[in-house]
Design a protein that fits this description.
globular; alpha+beta; single chain; 13 strands; 228 residues
């Protein structure tokens, strides 16, 4: 699984605003020490919980209780792809952290294709990436779908030392270019992308599904042959 298509667009276009929310601990109903991105609980059986949500089981309706009801749900697709069903939450306070959140739903590709057939409209987000707006009947169904993954874009740039200070040393550090590094935490189902020229991205899946994040980073057979 490449990281969410919605996140690709948002990483490219994100505005830099404070990562820490001034006075968040003083806001009514906000616990500055709860639901922080590095607070990941694993169950020892391949499952995990982050932001109070269980990946692979908690539904979009449950996610809205954490991230807020202001959400955009759509199919995000590149050309010649069925696309992924994603929910986008803008500027979510997670403890004292402010971030954009994208939830990818667990749904069969044939069901996504059927939703595309019933969609009310489609528009271009950036270049050839399409945002397909669902029929109202399908929007109601999506509420009960489980979440496959959560992607988080902090609203300020992070560096590698800061990430390691909060999350600890990664199980694997994979540099894909001079400017982009993946910090991989397979035991927690987490991939943190540090980008020297763009926005950082945190991707969460259940640890048993970490291959969804790791496998796309492996070199293709053509790259192996060419020595790239």
């Amino acid at each position: 699984m490449k990281f969410t298509l919605y996140a690709i667009v948002l990483v490219a276009a994100a505005l830099i605003v404070p990562f820490l929310i001034p006075g968040a601990g003083k806001q009514e109903g906000v616990d500055p020490n709860a639901n922080l991105p590095w607070q990941i609980a694993v169950d020892g059986q391949g499952g995990s919980r982050v932001f109070g949500l269980e990946l692979g089981r908690s539904t979009l309706a449950e996610a809205k209780k954490v991230f807020g009801s202001d959400v955009q749900v759509a199919i995000i697709a590149n050309p010649d792809e069925t696309g992924a069903l994603e929910a986008y939450f803008n500027q979510v306070p997670l403890g004292f952290v402010l971030a954009r959140v994208i939830v990818t739903m667990e749904i069969d590709a044939t069901e996504v294709a059927a939703m595309r057939e019933r969609a009310v409209r489609a528009s271009y987000m950036e270049s050839t990436t399409r945002k397909i707006t669902l029929h109202p009947d399908d929007l109601a169904l999506v509420e009960q779908l489980p979440m496959r993954a959560i992607s988080l874009i902090p609203t300020v740039n992070l560096d590698e030392p800061t990430v390691i200070h909060r999350f600890g040393s990664p199980g694997e550090r994979l540099a894909v270019s001079d400017k982009r590094v993946h910090l991989l935490y397979p035991e927690r189902g987490l991939d943190i992308i540090i980008d020297g020229e763009g926005k950082e991205l945190l991707q969460y899946v259940a640890p048993r599904n970490f291959f969804l994040l790791r496998d796309p980073l492996r070199p293709s057979e053509a790259e192996k042959v060419s020595g790239r």
